[in-house]
Write a structure and sequence with these properties.
The protein has about 425 residues and is an alpha+beta fold. It has 3 domains: about 100 residues, Phosphorylase Kinase, domain 1 (2-Layer Sandwich); about 200 residues, Transferase(Phosphotransferase), domain 1; about 100 residues, no CATH class. About 30% of the residues lie in helices and about 25% in strands. It contains 11 helices and 20 strands. The strands form 6 sheets. Strands 14, 15, 16, 17, 18, 19 and 20 form a 7-stranded antiparallel sheet that branches. The protein has a 5-stranded antiparallel sheet with strand order 1-2-3-5-4. Strand 12 and strand 13 form a beta hairpin. The longest helix has 20 residues. The chain is elongated and about 90 Å long. It is found in: Cell membrane. It comes from Lactuca saligna. This is Protein kinase domain-containing protein. InterPro entries: ANXUR1/2-like (IPR045272), Kinase-like_dom_sf (IPR011009), Prot_kinase_dom (IPR000719), Protein_kinase_ATP_BS (IPR017441), Ser-Thr/Tyr_kinase_cat_dom (IPR001245), Ser/Thr_kinase_AS (IPR008271). Its main location: membrane.
């Protein structure tokens, strides 16, 4: 072991410095416990200042030992990604074995599943970040070997101060050959109840799809706002089959975390629940790769962002009430005709009309709405079309006062993507 650690001497931290940072492992500094032992928070002094870090102290009574300690050092020093927890250093001195990590100030995901202030959009981004970290382990670049985590669960997904996900605890991970599409490793079953791939538990054959299964469980936890198991009469009972059945019976509404429902975009919910269910297929061959999971979660995030940024749907009657002067009409056909001719709204500052294609258009009055521009700058053209949203800045008109008027065309029930800014 000493020969192995020689290669990583640059990461070594003196025990004296760790004791100082944790106040001699004061219980008040404990921020967590896991399969390795207790985790302490502390401020580590170094040549350039001070850094808040987490110290994971090996306790052999927890059942893990030298191999897990060495594996963490090897993995986290060789595999670095924005969605993997970073290794700051380690200590192997006076019988102590301590791993030092970056501090994830919001703790682990499992502690936030039931927190109503953790929004659906935040949850989606956390899932996406964790998926990206796991995808990196499964499909490393260049000559690095594939890593199968083997213990993916919500308590092993840490959250930094900006709620970015960090996959952690690689002590049980296994390394597979590089540049191979499939990895099959015969190994003793390890992991956590509720998250373990049933096929892995049955045959003791570990694959990267085993991690995919575990991640699918985490996705359902995020969706349902609870852990994947519960204590019933002193026995742990898995909820995974119940969740799968609810999906198959199209009864997701019965299991979704109640406080999230009204904030969920339906397409976002459908995208996440679909990929979560696919991750839980009995056969590993039917499960998606983590790269596909990442793609689906990116789509789910986009749906949610579009939904949140879209204005509430308005109808023509509401617009007519804001007309100057108010419109008088006796039928919807008459209202449509009036709108096709154009009306003034917004206290006379906006000209609104319905064009021949049925699209709703606005022209902003230059009075009080002008944007100074550089007289030598070109006119600005932009067009964006995404997920059924049409949003077009048709043209910019430079007048003699060096101002620009924007004319926009958009579907009424979506928020127009008007960019009011100085033109470059």
């Amino acid at each position: 072991m000493e020969a192995f650690l020689e290669e990583f001497q640059y990461l070594k931290i003196r025990l004296e410095a760790i004791k100082s940072a944790t106040r001699n492992f004061d219980n008040n500094n404990i921020i967590g416990k896991g399969g390795f032992g207790k985790v302490y928070k502390g401020v580590l002094s170094h040549s350039t200042g001070q850094t808040t870090v987490a110290f994971k102290r090996l306790d052999r009574n927890y059942g893990q030992g030298d191999s897990e300690f060495l594996k963490e050092i090897l993995m986290l020093s060789c595999y670095t990604h924005q969605n993997l927890i970073s290794l700051v250093g380690f200590c192997d001195e006076d019988g102590e074995k301590i791993l030092v990590y970056e501090h994830a100030s919001h703790g682990s995901l499992d502690r936030h599943l039931r927190i109503t202030t953790l929004t659906w959009r935040q949850r989606l981004n956390i899932c996406l970040g964790a998926a990206m970290g796991l995808c990196y382990l499964h499909d490393p670049k260049e000559t690095q070997q594939r890593v199968i985590h083997r213990d993916i669960k919500s308590s092993n997904i840490l959250l930094d101060e900006d709620w970015n996900a960090k996959v952690s605890d690689l002590g049980l991970s296994k390394i597979g050959p590089a540049n191979q599409q499939h990895t099959f490793l015969a190994t003793n079953v390890a992991g956590t109840f509720g998250y373990i791939d049933p096929m892995y538990a049955e045959k003791s054959i570990l694959t990267k799809e085993s991690d995919v299964y575990s991640f699918g469980v985490v996705l359902f936890e995020v969706l349902c706002g609870k852990l994947c198991f519960e204590n019933q009469n002193g026995h742990l009972q898995s909820l995974v089959q119940t969740w799968k059945q609810s999906y198959e019976d199209m009864k997701l509404d019965e299991i979704i975390f109640h406080d999230l429902k009204r904030h969920m975009d339906p397409s976002s919910l459908e995208t996440l629940s679909d990929v979560a269910y696919r991750c839980l297929h009995k056969s590993g061959e039917d499960r998606p790769k983590m790269s596909e999971v990442v793609e689906k979660l990116e789509i789910a995030v986009r749906f949610q962002v579009i939904s949140e940024e879209a204005e509430p749907q308005m109808d023509y009657e509401e617009i007519s009430k804001n007309a100057v002067p108010p419109l008088i009409y006796s039928s919807s056909e008459e209202l449509t005709m009036l709108l096709s001719k154009g009306i003034l709204v917004n206290e006379g500052k906006t000209w609104f009309w319905l064009n021949k294609n049925g699209e709703n258009c606005e022209m902003i009055s230059p009075i009080g709405s002008l944007i100074p521009i550089d007289p030598a700058s070109p006119e600005d053209y932009c067009r964006k079309k995404s997920s059924g949203i049409l949003c077009t800045v048709l043209f910019g008109i430079q007048n003699t006062c060096q101002h620009t008027i924007f004319v926009t065309t958009y579907h009424l029930h979506y928020k127009p993507c008007i960019q009011s800014r100085r033109l470059n």
